[in-house]
Amino acid sequence: MLTRTSKVESLIVKVVSFSSTLQIGDVCFIDGTSTALAIQRETEQFYGTEGDEATLPVPPPVLPITENLTISKINKNPLIKVGNVNVLGVSSSSILGVGNVGHIRMQVKLRHIRHLENDNVS
After folding, report:
1. Which stretch of DSSP H or E encloses residue 63?
2. Beta-bridge partners for 86
3. C-alpha distance from residue 15 to each of 3, 26, 53, 65, 77 (Å)
4. Which sign does the torsion angle of CA 114, 120, 121, 122 carry?
5. Which is the most buried residue in 1, 66, 77, 108, by most CB within 10 A?
6. Which of 103, 86, 77, 100 is nearest to 6 (CA)?
7. Interacting residues of 19 by C-beta distance below 8 A, sequence separation 6+
């Protein structure tokens, strides 16, 4: 991993939810997954099959990078300095990180169903 120092004067975060991460400091690997089902109806009905995880959309697989990469860099000032950070929310398998991260893998599966009544008013 990189050798840098991160300095933040102040960090204010209101909400971290749904498989999200607030990472302060260095970490080698972060893996976050969130699966959500949201059903909105005007009438109270349950059809019995909405919660089946097999019906959620499946994202394509993330393939590993197999190319040989050569990177050469010089960090003349290995300090990342930030004043004030104010975050309202971090949600749905996301990350707010302060520091070095080697590898991150985040995934969200979301299915939102809306059943609205038909208005047959002429």
Report:
1. none
2. 12
3. 30, 22, 27, 33, 33
4. positive
5. 108
6. 100
7. 32, 33, 34, 92, 93
DSSP state of 60: P
| 89 contacts 17 by C-beta, under 8 angstroms | yes
Which token pair is 104?
């991150």
**CA-CA distance, 5 to 12, in Å (whole number)?**
20
Q: How far is CA 42 from CA 1, 18, 20, 88, 118, in A?
A: 52, 26, 31, 30, 10
Tokens of 34: 């969130």
Cα 69 versus chain centre, distance: 27
Strand 95-98 relative to strand 101-115, pairing: unpaired
Question: CA 62, 102, 1: angle at the middle one, nearest 5?
Answer: 145
CA distances from 6 to 47, 70, 71, 103 (A): 51, 25, 22, 18
Euclidean distance between CA atoms 25 and 21, whole angstroms: 12
